Amino acid sequence: MKPILRAVRLTKVYESEGVRTPALQGVDLEVMPGEFTAIAGPSGSGKSTLLHLLGCLDKPTAGETWLGERRTDQLDPISRAHLRLREIGFVFQSYNLIPVLTVLENAAFVLELQGVPKKVRLQKAMAALEALGIADLAHRRPNQLSGGQQQRVAVARALAAEPRVVLADEPTANLDSKTGLALIELMKKLNAERGITFLFSTHDPRLLEHVKRIVRLEDGRIVADERVGAA
User: Fold this and answer.
1) Of 65, 136, 186, 216, whose CB is crowded by the most CB atoms within 10 A?
2) What CATH homologous superfamily does 5-227 map to?
3) Which tens digit of pLDDT belongs to each residue from 13-56?
């Protein structure tokens, strides 16, 4: 089996007013299909930067990123956007829902960008909402939802397009303990039943108790890579 995501000597340096700030320093990482993995570390350790680079949201200063057998850091912006649209699902801690759209329309949004016919995309979006237990909220708008409900819509949007991998940046950061645990259990179920690869950034100990692998970052470097065997 070959990795679905791979970073090779990955380096990212941000520059502002002549000051260079290294965010990642020579990171090597492989994620296999079907893994349920957390990237853990304190604020500023490079977790979100690593996700953004692997998800083609940004380009590295040096090193390589791969999705399957395709090297992604060398792609032009249009090709990277196409890859994100077709093969990667994103879940952000700020949810990034579109306020003027209903829950169903938000869940179908990526499919609409893909050009999927309206009837088909709404069917797929509704199926995703049903899988997440929020089909009854389909015609509400984001401002009518709790934080946990909004995060479930964000997950539904990511899953409706059936991506190869889901990248989640601090998915439980804005949720209370009960809602956060419910979301974790839900994503574990989707991982187990559908074989979806999940890669999270987190410093939430609740999430770390449920993953199968923990990659620990400090100052832009991997300092530990543990197989923890969570069910």
Assistant:
1) 65
2) P-loop containing nucleotide triphosphate hydrolases (3.40.50.300)
3) 999 888 999 999 999 999 999 999 999 998 889 999 999 999 99
